[in-house]
Amino acid sequence: MYFGLSEEQTFFQDNVKKFLVDQAPLDVIRQITAEKNTSIQEEIRQGLTNLGLNALLIPEDYGGLGLDLLFAAAVSEGLGSGVAPIAFTGSYVMAPLAIMHGGSDVQKENYLTKISSNTVKFGVGLSEYIGAREDAELIINGNKVNGKALFVIDADDASHFILSDDQGTIFIVDADDSGLEIIELTSVDKTRSYVEILLNNVTAEILDNTVKNNNAIEKTIDAGRIMLAADSVGAAQVMIDKSVEYAKERKQFGRVIGSFQAVKHMCAEMTAELEPCYAIVWHAAHCFDYIPEEARLLACQSKSHISEVTKMVAKKATEVHGGMGFTDLLGLHYWFKRIGMNRQLLGSPELVRDEAGKIQGF
Hints:
12 helices; 3 domains; two-stranded antiparallel sheet; alpha+beta
């Protein structure tokens, strides 16, 4: 029995990778992160939108492609391999799923159609439900919301935001609301945007099927965690590939360093640890749509395990490159930082493992 990506999924992923190689090479990534060049980012985003990324998971009835989460995981791997400086996990995976599972028929028709036609773009902030802080609380009173939303992802050029309170009620706010203040956060990962949002009597549209029902927010978070895991796998694979190529070329004491046993062992260990991660993230994505009783546990396990493995890969890949691994000239740090940020978003490995234990009754 063969379990892996289908020809169609591989083809989609390859197209994403090829586009990023052609349109967003390392020099372009460096320029975007150094200068905050939004015009280049917009060109890249538009090119990937033309490939259908915005409509990937949206049902055909609403103008989308109607594909499953495994397709999205394949795309996320490709985006991670190219450290793509665009929104995806929040805007085009979590937001559509939150509306699909939590919205009314009217809300689905309104927002899903607009996402698939690229006339609406969402930022997503569900940290209040995942791990609320005492000084950051969102309070819903009727159709008004007050408080603070932390670590909102995919906020660049967002026209709307999908947020939640600590009970799992999901709501939509307009980015142009006068009571909404957006504060850009500084993070190690410069390829994507993260913001904090202050809400002062902001008008909110609550997704009807999320009131006293946590199914929608849990499925949305599960999907987001799987996408982050897939993104990290793609980034880690590139770091391994770069390490092997460097080890074949770099000479020390008159020999290529790849001939030294210690370097061979590091490359072999990275490959051996990462290879099973493909299976776990693919299986988690498959379970999301087809084996729902296992989906939440697999999402937690894939996120927590892959976060640990890719952290190890990022560290050893940098060590293989020696001092050059820390330089901007090589650019290895873009993948390193991407993996580090993915590790913390939507729950650290420790928090997610704790959730997995509760799911299993521990």
